Amino acid sequence: MDAIEALLTRRTVPPALLGEPAPDEAALKTMFAAAAAAPDHGRLRPWRFLIVRAEARQRLGELFACALAAEQPDLPLSEREKLRSAPLRAPLVLVAVARIDPAHPKIPEVEQLAAAAAAVQNLLLAAHALGFAAKWTTGKPAYSPAVRHGLGLAETERILGFIYLGTPLGTPQTIDRSVPADRVSVWTGSAP
After folding, report:
1. Distance (Å, rounded) from C-alpha 56 to C-alpha 78?
2. SS3 (DSSP) at 51
3. pLDDT per residue over 91-122, tens digit each?
4. Full set of structural domains in the chain with CATH
5. On the CB side of 120, how many CA atoms lie within 13 Å of its CA?
6. Which pTM was predicted?
């Protein structure tokens, strides 16, 4: 698959439509190399990924449920169960983490965050090119201090999202990729 085809055919696939096999070590190595090729001012590589597979997915779900229940005591039991089972919906989960250096003398935080997000996008494109499918999601666990703590993240690290990965079950839905007219314009040197 060439680069343009990968860009234009990549789709977000719901975890319910992700099956085995998950990316193996060779595929993950390629995906992480693609992430490392993302634009990155200062070559900081302000990102990292945690690989969650097998039984660790159950522990991640338990962390989600317990952390959110502690932070929101009125969280309905149905929501806790949904959080608990979320990581089990795909054979492999990656936790995408932005490693921000707020005191960097040259690279602002927004550029570090942009580089980390670009790394995730490159990883998603590589997964697609290798025949896998994914969903990048956030939700309440991504913003939970208790989840960050439970994952062992530093105070300056932020969860960019959870990447659910597997082999697509069926053909992903076709999406209109046309660009709305109001998304691209020519600037002529003065405000409209």
Report:
1. 22
2. strand
3. 999 999 999 999 999 999 999 999 999 999 99
4. 3-52+89-170 (3.40.109.10)
5. 29
6. 0.93
